[in-house]
Amino acid sequence: MAGKKSSKKKDPNAPKRPKTGFFLFCDERREKVKATLGEGEKKSASEVSKLLGEEWGKLTDSEKDKYNSVSKKNMEVYKKQFEEYKKNKPESSDESESSDDEGAKKKKKKRKAKKDENAPKRPLSSYMLFSQTYRKSLVAENPTLKVTEVAKLVGEKWGKMNDAEKAPYVNKAAELKAAYNIEKSKYDATQPPPPKKKTKKEESEDDSDEDSESE
């Protein structure tokens, strides 16, 4: 019996992928379609979805473009948000650990590099600096907003800003990065050199030694 496949835990802070044109159309039409069904008719989700699909299929390309163009713009914002999210996302154990070669004995896993608490902290990007400021005002004005909704609004606002409006955050990020590089260089100079990385042959010999000792 095959083992259960472990699924990655979803990060609640990750930007939410935008809806397609069809789903935006469904959001707009769902209640109206439900209202067209008689009292005695079944109003199951599958029945409503079927009717929505039929309506969508009857639309012309220009009518569909109303929803597809919105979806396309949302996708552009999402891609920018996701790139910034990836830059500033803490490294997960799944990404930092390498799986063993196929067919090899799974006795030893590569350990995640231990985070150095004394090392200088990597500075925030211009987008994240802006996000910190704008996020506070958004939440203050709309305390019921979800985390994903706030992230989307922040990304949309950033995407609409021109270079002059972004300049204060870009300049601040550059200053922080320059200061970080200086601190990092000083810190690295005080640290012992990293241990020499073992070759695959040396790792294989270590595994063989462990197997021999265990017999």
Automatic annotation (TrEMBL):
InterPro entries: HMG_box_dom (IPR009071), HMG_box_dom_sf (IPR036910), HMGB (IPR050342). Keywords: DNA-binding, Nucleus. Residues 1-23, 35-55, 83-128, 183-215 are annotated as: Disordered. One of its GO terms (cellular component) is nucleus. Residues 35-45, 83-92 have a biased composition (Basic and acidic residues). Gene3D superfamilies: High mobility group box domain. One of its GO terms (molecular function) is DNA binding. Residues 15-86, 120-188 form the HMG box domain. Residues 15-86, 120-188 bind DNA. Residues 204-215 have a biased composition (Acidic residues). PANTHER family: HIGH MOBILITY GROUP PROTEIN DSP1 (PTHR48112), MITOCHONDRIAL TRANSCRIPTION FACTOR A, ISOFORM B (PTHR48112:SF22). This is Predicted protein. It comes from Naegleria gruberi.
